Amino acid sequence: MTELAPVLTQADANLDSSLEKLFDLCRIKSISTDPAFKADCRTAAEWLVSYLQSLGFEASVRDTPGHPMVVAHHAAGSEGAPHVLFYGHYDVQPVDPLNLWERDPFDPAIIERDGQRVIAGRGTSDDKGQLLTFVEACRAYKETHGALPVRVTILFEGEEESGSPSLKPFLEANAAELKADFALICDTSMWDAETPAISAGLRGLVGEEITIKAADRDLHSGYFGGAAANPIHILSDILAGLHDETGRVTLESFYDGVEETPSQIKASWETLGMSTEKFLGAIGLSVPSGEKGRSVLELTWARPTAEVNGIWGGYTGEGFKTVIAAEASAKVSFRLVGKQDPDRIRASFRAYVQSKLPADCRVEFHQHGGSPAIQLPYDSALLNRAKSALSDEWPKPAVMIGMGGSIPIAGDFQKMLGMEALLVGFALADDRIHSPNEKYNLTSFHKGIRSWIRIMAALAD
Amino acid sequence: MTELAPVLTQADANLDSSLEKLFDLCRIKSISTDPAFKADCRTAAEWLVSYLQSLGFEASVRDTPGHPMVVAHHAAGSEGAPHVLFYGHYDVQPVDPLNLWERDPFDPAIIERDGQRVIAGRGTSDDKGQLLTFVEACRAYKETHGALPVRVTILFEGEEESGSPSLKPFLEANAAELKADFALICDTSMWDAETPAISAGLRGLVGEEITIKAADRDLHSGYFGGAAANPIHILSDILAGLHDETGRVTLESFYDGVEETPSQIKASWETLGMSTEKFLGAIGLSVPSGEKGRSVLELTWARPTAEVNGIWGGYTGEGFKTVIAAEASAKVSFRLVGKQDPDRIRASFRAYVQSKLPADCRVEFHQHGGSPAIQLPYDSALLNRAKSALSDEWPKPAVMIGMGGSIPIAGDFQKMLGMEALLVGFALADDRIHSPNEKYNLTSFHKGIRSWIRIMAALAD
């Protein structure tokens, strides 16, 4: 067994230079969803390859039809050690509305916020800060012992925030190279600032964009109002009809494959001390909006949803324009749980939209990503070793939780490479990922690095 | 009585230079609803004053808190002639989406479209071309007889497309100066390209903008979806609930003051040969969307409506963003008929929105314009003289029709200055006013000028 304490000491000594590395990476505007930032995405991939090579990895930028992947390999220090695949993503969300940022999203810095030292900037939490916790853990091992306790393959993606279109073909084409004993994924949150969490359940996601088309031109609402179809009305009607009065999604067969969460798991969640007041109060709300009679943790971890993420149509500028628009659009997403089938959900949604369409109107569908939910067995050895390693590092013991967000890669690893995935991350609920003023706690970064050092050691035992 | 024939001949001879004047005016980007074009609105007002002065009018630009008014006066050639107030507006609608225009909206030109010679450009029909028909009629009189057959006061407004905020205060402050025997308003349409129309009924308008506010920030739909209120859902629900299954508006007391159209009037409309197929077919539609069991003419001329003119919220850019927006907005307008009270309709709408709001969400209302409907008596002498003059000019006799659009000024003249208003215009249903590729038929412009020459003569008799 490799000695642990000096590696942790080395990580502590490295902290300032680890932060410099994070700042360098966060300065690169790798917004994957916007074609204007295509070159920046490649720059981020190249930066990572170069850094991993400097740590002794055999690393390369791997082209895809979209943004490139980064793949890197490093042998284990001793024979028979397990082989892990570590996954993270170097792309980030768009930054609009820019005027709501306290500082330039691409000029990261350590600032004081709400009495904490945090690293402010787009991507500091999601997911550049998180992926570097693992890289910096590897670095500390190399600098201390000249070796890693486990064999490591790294896969960094550049399309996670835009539906990962290249991921499945890449996994398929490179399955032999990427297959390991299990995967480590760092793109999730802690329970709270003192309690690390392992995410055993993850919701899936289906994204759809619809455009309702009525008249062949924009119309004057005086001449045509009252007789001509208004696509905003049709769209509103479609969206309003997605939920019934109890908050359930109305799509046909939507709940096929959704199972009730076992009562002992619900009971363990109740010990976490989360309340509706706390959960919603943090974002200025108080009334749970989804299915009636379920806790906020169950609603966000274990129940499926339908959410409209964007809507637009007609005149949206200053003043008023009495127009009946020719078309109106919305972006709609579904969070999936259990065995809900993304393809069937998409088909059911499309059939529903068609059924609400007047005979003289049309709809265009545009497909965004789709991935099923995943659920790990709560009794796996992998989970329990990681739980114990995390509990050694943080003030409070680690908990196994559900996750509202979708990490499609976990399902892909399971389905395509036959690997279970361990989801451990150090983000916090108030990190404002996907929003203005994203941050990552300095403690998340520092103790995140130390956590991976401990987890690698635990896995090597 | 002034001799008519030489004036008509003079107007014919003037046509090319009349068109040059129209082009000059249409090149000025007087978009009143967008503050970026404030200076252009003043330029348009100054252009009109200068031109009217050159024709012998005593004309001036009159400041308001918004865009300026143009007021001009000219005496009648003979004692005892009636005094008319002519109204038009020099402001135009925004031009977005610009990419749908066949040519620069502010570079007017005569082009061939669908086998007709038309004047293409923003404002050519609504309302610069229309207001110039009257000015050019005056010019032909002056050039022929050195005098006008009636005493003329002109009022040109620059805020018609943005709710006319300055109009009422201006009428009030200048009532003595503006009061005439009756008003002439040129901002309406013909029945068809051969049949002139006098608009005896006009729908009113109430404009409202609402913003639904939920969480205090944009949220990640993974973390919060299923528990946190989504303002786009709330907004969709509100908008979808505005109509019941029969197409009626659901607001409380909405139909107070709405009377059924007398059967002899409905019968006269039936002789016009309009069908659902024709009316909706022209814009690529076939199914009437409003109240069931009423003709398209009744729906657009004599029934009130609720229409959403614009909607926006969340992520609307390329790609996908799994966000739950902090707020969502819509612009909503109501067309009024009969004695519907704009203030009560607005209050009823606001109460309805409040009633649909979850306890932890808020709404902000922004008031746009409001005006009641007006209805002229079908047997007035004014209407009948104009009808006969128009019938002399055009291939088919003039008809008295309803109007779907709102011309608030007609109600204001009635209420504030005690004047009936004669609404005659030469626009056509396919002029694409408020839309890309607006045009005005060359025939509308030319015979429009001749029509005013005839109407002025008829009024002077």
TrEMBL record, chains A, B:
Name of the top EC class for this enzyme: hydrolase
InterPro entries: Cyt/Met_Dipeptidase, Peptidase_M20, Peptidase_M20_dimer
Entry-linked PANTHER family: BETA-ALA-HIS DIPEPTIDASE, SUCCINYL-DIAMINOPIMELATE DESUCCINYLASE
Keyword annotations from UniProtKB, A to Z: Dipeptidase, Hydrolase, Metal-binding, Protease
Record domain Peptidase M20 dimerisation: where: 201-360
GO molecular function, one term: dipeptidase activity
Organism (species): Rhizobium alvei
Stated name of the protein: Dipeptidase
This enzyme's EC code(s): 3.4.13.-
Keyword Protease: yes
tRNA-binding listed as a keyword: no
